[in-house]
């Protein structure tokens, strides 16, 4: 029974990471109806930036804060330079640009920082076992960080006027523009926020999976699955979906398919959700008039 | 995913093709003869390694053609065609190494398997469409190596180690003594040539027009009485079949298959080849194949990461500047010249 409880708790800890990346995906999807295939690679790049700062002797949390801000800027920049020119192009063009971004960011990361696996420090240490050894200090700490991030995002969108403006721009760009919201910049801000959230997820998962340029590929898949379970246009749903996928993945890995097919579990979830309930658990059912 | 988004892309606006007056017979003969010379000459001119590379380029071109059939002409975005490439390669490898089939015998079998699987995947693809299909096929591409490595099929696939094969020898009735490399090149060119011809024939006729109509405006196509569901699933089957045949050829040309050679990168390479060569262009697929084979080789001299970076930059550059790819560029140049002359 202890093993089972541990699987659930470890699942919640990794689920937090998936939830963060899923939230980042949903932030961009909600505003622009794009799925950012390069989200994982961007987060990996951020984590490498944080790593080099820590290596250079900066305190952990200084590096953390600087990385989040830098990632925000990178996100805004990517939207301005790459996505804005193709805003009204066909889906194929968007997918192509995202794949291009994935290739550039992923390979640049390998080029600059090398392909050897690196150890990334965890800021959370404990002197003794926590909760009777059920959970490690890092699992507890990263789950806490994830929850703080999610709460901040929620508060930002719910209670600030900028958050309201961003929601308005996402839901109804035309009306939002009429009331004086700069829709283009709201989209760029959304990209920045998504990149920052992704960076936090990257820094939280790096101590567990170790840091290398392809660290996030699998995680991105689970985040896709999480976002789809919850409904890809619903932030709360994405978070719940992310946690659910984390637990599901851990249980399936431990008791059903073994660790070799973990990615296939994500694939099965994605296909299952899309075929049976494309709008997810909490998503809006979209009907389009032709 | 409103239909109007699909219409906006310049590459897919159906262009009225002026009625062909038909070239005089001697011109046709000249073009065919020239094509044959260009196709045959490398086998006797090139050293064995460049010839192998050219063989692979033709094979990649065929794989890109498969992707083009479903993504370019039918508008169903697939980022996972590496899976069909792998399926074809493994079908041939398993039959050749476990059951001692000859290469030629495995070809129809591998085509059939890929066609059936493609048809099967076409059904969920119907419900997904657009972005979701891209997402699902992307996930499939990521999961492929893991599936191939799985223990339950290890006896057949050879697990992580993969399977070794031998290139077919040139048959005895061939004039002159052809080396296996030369023969492999002819096999690749021959099979690819037949597939290109068949695809061209499919696209230029009624079915091709229906495929493109479905891509450009599904509702309108349906209103015109086209069975879009059947068209889309069958397009997927044909596409998978063509890419699978390319996979079979690559298995014997490389004489080796292993799970890690079918990573996400294969699917992305095919996608890059399609965009650079020309979306919805038959001949463009061949350019795409040449591009994805030779450009990384040149770029690798700079750095291990350079091919990926250059792929990415060129992919975005083509989408921004030349959305109809290299084939579109040639078409434009040819049009300019004809206009002047």
Task: Please describe what this structure looks like.
Chain A: It is a multi-pass membrane protein. Chain A: Its main location: membrane. Chain A: It holds the Pfam family BPD_transp_2. Chain A: It comes from Belnapia arida. Chain A: This is Branched-chain amino acid ABC transporter permease. Chain B: This is Branched-chain amino acid ABC transporter permease. The complex is a heterodimer of chains A (290) and B (341). Chain A is mainly α. Chain A has one domain. Chain A is 73% helix and 0% strand. Chain A has eleven helices and no strands. In chain A, α1 packs parallel to α5, α1 runs antiparallel to α10 and α3 crosses α8. The longest helix of chain A has 31 residues. The mean pLDDT of chain A is 87. Chain B is mostly helical and 341 residues long. Chain B has a domain of 212 residues. A two-stranded antiparallel sheet of chain B has the order 1-2. In chain B, α4 packs antiparallel against α5. The longest helix of chain B has 27 residues. The termini of chain B are far apart. The N terminus of chain B is likely disordered. Chains A and B meet through α4, α9 and α11 of A and α1, α5, α6, α12 and α14 of B.
């Amino acid at each position: 029974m202890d093993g089972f409880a541990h699987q659930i708790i470890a699942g919640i800890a990794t689920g937090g990471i998936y939830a963060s990346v899923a939230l980042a995906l949903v932030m961009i999807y909600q505003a622009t109806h794009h799925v950012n295939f390069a989200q994982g690679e961007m987060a990996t790049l951020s984590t490498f930036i944080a790593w080099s700062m820590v290596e250079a002797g900066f305190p952990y949390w200084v590096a953390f804060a600087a990385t989040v801000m830098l990632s925000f800027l990178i996100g805004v920049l990517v939207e301005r330079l790459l996505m804005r020119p193709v805003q009204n192009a066909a889906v194929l063009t968007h997918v192509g640009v995202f794949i291009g971004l994935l290739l550039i960011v992923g390979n640049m990361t390998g080029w600059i920082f090398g392909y050897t696996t690196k150890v990334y420090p965890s800021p959370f240490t404990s002197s003794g076992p926590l909760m009777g050894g059920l959970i490690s200090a890092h699992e507890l700490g990263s789950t806490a960080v994830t929850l703080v991030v999610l709460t901040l995002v929620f508060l930002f969108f719910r209670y600030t006027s900028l958050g309201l403006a961003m929601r308005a721009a996402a839901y109804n760009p035309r009306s939002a523009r009429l009331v004086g919201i700069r829709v283009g910049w709201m989209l760029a801000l959304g990209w920045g926020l998504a990149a920052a959230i992704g960076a936090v997820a990257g820094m939280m998962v790096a101590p567990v999976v170790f840091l290398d340029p392809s660290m996030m590929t699998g995680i991105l898949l689970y985040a896709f699955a999480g976002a789809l379970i919850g409904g890809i246009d619903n932030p709360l749903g994405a978070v719940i979906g992310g946690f659910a996928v984390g637990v599901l993945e851990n249980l399936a890995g431990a008791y059903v398919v073994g660790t070799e097919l973990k990615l296939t579990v994500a694939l099965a979830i994605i296909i299952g959700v899309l075929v049976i309930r494309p709008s997810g658990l909490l998503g809006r059912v979209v009907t389009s008039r032709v | 995913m409103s239909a109007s988004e699909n219409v906006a892309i310049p590459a897919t606006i159906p262009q009225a093709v002026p009625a062909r007056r038909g070239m005089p017979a001697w011109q046709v003969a000249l073009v065919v003869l020239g094509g044959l010379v260009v196709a045959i000459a490398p086998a006797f001119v090139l050293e064995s390694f460049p010839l192998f590379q050219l063989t692979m380029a033709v094979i990649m071109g065929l794989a890109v053609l498969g992707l083009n059939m479903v993504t370019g002409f039918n508008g169903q975005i697939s980022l996972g065609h590496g899976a069909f490439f792998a399926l074809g390669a493994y079908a041939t490898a398993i039959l050749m190494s476990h059951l001692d089939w000859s290469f030629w015998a495995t070809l129809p079998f591998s085509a059939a398997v890929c066609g059936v699987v493609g048809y099967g995947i076409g059904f969920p693809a119907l419900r997904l469409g657009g972005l979701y299909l891209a997402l699902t096929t992307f996930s499939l591409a990521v999961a492929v190596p893991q599936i191939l490595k799985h223990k339950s099929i290890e006896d057949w696939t050879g697990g992580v180690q993969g399977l070794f094969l031998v290139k077919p020898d040139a048959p005895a009735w061939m004039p002159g003594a052809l080396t296996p490399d030369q023969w492999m090149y002819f096999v690749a060119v021959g099979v690819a040539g037949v597939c290109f011809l068949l695809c061209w024939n499919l696209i230029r006729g009624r079915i091709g027009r229906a495929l493109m109509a479905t891509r450009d405006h599904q509702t309108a196509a349906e209103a015109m009485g086209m069975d879009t569901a059947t068209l889309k699933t069958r397009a997927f089957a044909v596409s998978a079949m063509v890419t699978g045949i390319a996979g079979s050829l690559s298995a014997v040309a490389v004489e080796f298959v292993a799970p890690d050679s079918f990573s996400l990168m294969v699917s992305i390479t095919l996608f890059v080849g399609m965009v650079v060569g020309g979306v919805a262009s038959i001949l463009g697929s061949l350019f795409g194949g040449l591009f994805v084979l030779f450009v990384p080789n040149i770029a690798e001299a700079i750095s291990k990461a350079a091919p990926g970076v250059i792929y990415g930059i060129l992919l975005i550059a083509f989408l921004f500047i030349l959305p109809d790819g290299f084939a579109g560029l040639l078409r434009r140049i040819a049009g300019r010249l004809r206009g002047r002359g």
